[in-house]
Specification:
Helix 2 (46-55) packs across helix 13 (246-279), helix 8 packs antiparallel against helix 11 (217-223) and helix 9 (173-180) packs antiparallel against helix 10 (185-213). This protein is mainly α. Residues 1-6 have low confidence and may be disordered. The chain is globular, with a radius of gyration of 24 Å. It contains 13 helices and no strands. It has one domain: MetI-like fold (Orthogonal Bundle), CATH 1.10.3720.10.
Amino acid sequence: MDLTLIQGGRKTGLSKWFLRVPALLYVTLMILVPLIVIVEDGFRAGLSGLIHQISVPIAQHAILLTLWTAALMTLINAIMGLATAYVLVRYEFPGKQLLNAIVDLPLSIPTLVTGVMLVMLYGPQSALGAFLSEKIGLDIIFAPPGIVVALLFISFPFVVRTIQPVLMNLDLTQEEAAATLGAKPWYTFRKVVLPTLLPPLLSGSLLSFSRAVGEFGAVVIVAGNIPLKTQTAAVYVLGAVESENRLGASAVSLLLLTIAILVLMTANGIQKAWENRHEN
């Protein structure tokens, strides 16, 4: 019997290594090695060289444009994503299943196709684009608003799908008690529902921000890649590569990578803290 246990332990140990080694090797080759390469190349001229590359006026403008458009998109998506998730969970209406499926559509559509769709809808040749430009003075395509609209489209599912399962599993006892005591729906939502949804809301919003910072396909179509006007950081990297400015491309890429990692770590920390509190 002892021999069987020993043999079983050996088999278990071998099976663990059989699973771990390919997984670790794959992660190393596909993720860690590229990260190490971009870090090494970004610091090829030292820290001062990296700072100089991201401080160039064109690069600086592209980075700031990326950050503020992504931040504005995140704020809008947080509000509308929360509202959409609440409607999908708490209300029944015709076409609900279709709407629920459409929410995930931006994840399956190529981002270049997203850009083309937005140009066809809001471009100066379209009726809506011409109306907004001539009557309101609002240019969508080849302007920062187009970047925000594109980011809203591609990042919308992150907030909805982060909040939706939490809302579905929410205990209705406290809401029913508040209603029994005469609390109005909006007051109940603010005091009872919203505090529970804040962690997943923040987590989903940060995920959408991280996704938006590195977006290229849709943005390059709707923004037009105009330096010091509509050129985002990801598009700047492409221009730097094409102009053989490898150091500039690596420096800006490293900055975007750092921002994305910090945001993802924050989102994961919020999610884990919420799960731990929920379990306890």
